[in-house]
Amino acid sequence: MQPDLERELIRKCKAGDARFYEPLVRAYEPSGLRLATGMLGNLDDARDALQDAFVKAFEALHRFDMRRPFGPWFFQILRNHCRDMLRSRQARFKLETLDENLELRPADAEKGPERARQRSAASELLWRALEKVGFEHREILVLKELQGFRYNEIAQILDIPEGTVASRLFHARRALRDALDGMAVELP
Amino acid sequence: MPDKITHDDLMRFLDGELSPDEHARVQAAIASSTELAREAAIYRAVKSSFQGISFHPGTYHRSVWDGVNQNLTRPIGWILTIAGAAVWAAYGVWVFVVSPVEPWEKLASGAVVIGILALLASVIWERYREWLTDPYRDIQR
């Protein structure tokens, strides 16, 4: 979404007109769902978290700094909400419905069912490893590897100095490597 | 880990967060150190393990917008409904109180209304207590 259009929509939302919120919701929904699913482990809880986060963001728009982009600010709200959900036992990191809802890349389908099956097994192992590493490591891995955010964006979302992102990523990746090792997944 | 190349440098290198000069420096260090090359290969493999997961845009058939919109607009509807009902109820009570009917009629009608409200409140209270003691209330669908 163009920054100017985004700012105009937010300005109208701030004036109290919720109709102008719909384009923002639809624009940030796919990446928000990806983030929440990565943090919570299943689509049902992720959808609930995403919906609640959009409502919270709308109610907090009066505090939004118009000079900044909406995305990182919203993802910070969503990340905090996911963490609160996990803490308050409303949700656990559950994997039971994940595989049905995640689709493999179209290229895998072209390579045949065996390749797709291997991918599916590998992705299940990865999700199980992510479950083991805990929320603190999982969130930064999701932001970097599933969302593809730059370090400055991750710092903004996690509310940490940009200089510590690399360090946190290192510890998270090491934890993930250990978890994969523990599941007998071979790495170089 | 060879001198001057930290784990943070390695992460920034793998994530493309270094300037061209820094990138070249780390790349040269990796080329000259088996230990560093092995470490880089491990973390590159950890990174690439995520490539098996992909969210296809077509996965999301149902938008959350309807739910968001309901949450944003419903409270306004409830506030208006409750405020309007309260005004009408207050007006009705005032009209009833000042109407020129016999006092026993007012008492009887008042008793009926208060009785219905008391029954309603007791049912709500009972449901609330059941909910508080429900051992399965935290179980999600």
Summarize the structure.
The complex is a heterodimer of chains A (188) and B (141). Chain A has 188 residues and is mainly alpha-helical.
Annotation keywords:
heterodimer, A: 188 residues, mainly alpha, B: 141 residues, 5 helices, rod-shaped
Descriptive notes:
The complex is a heterodimer of chains A (188) and B (141). Chain A contains ten helices and no strands. With 188 residues, chain A is mostly helical. The longest helix of chain A has 21 residues, at 113-133. Chain B is mainly alpha-helical. Helix content of chain B is 72%, strand content 0%. Chain B has helices spanning 7-14, 20-32, 34-48, 65-98, 103-133. The longest helix of chain B is centred in the middle third of the chain and has 34 residues, at 65-98. At the A-B interface, helix 2, helix 3, helix 7, helix 8 and helix 10 of A face helix 1, helix 3 and helix 4 of B.
Q: What's the total number of strands of chain A?
A: 0
Query: Which shape of chain B, going by the Cα principal axes?
Result: rod-shaped
Tell me, what's the shape of chain A?
A: globular
Structural class of chain B: mainly alpha
Indicate the low-confidence ranges of chain B by residue numbers. Answer: none
N-to-C span of chain A: 40 Å
Average pLDDT level of chain A: 85
Q: How far is the first residue's CA from the last residue's CA of chain B? A: 49 Å
Strand content of chain A: under 5%
Identify the quaternary structure here: heterodimer
Radius of gyration of chain B: 35 Å
Q: So how many helices of chain A?
A: 10
Helix-strand blueprint:
The complex is a heterodimer of chains A (188) and B (141).
Chain A: H1 3-14, H2 22-40, H3 43-59, H4 70-87, H5 98-101, H6 106-110, H7 113-133, H8 135-146, H9 151-158, H10 165-182
Chain B: H1 7-14, H2 20-32, H3 34-48, H4 65-98, H5 103-133
Helix pairs in contact in B: 2-3
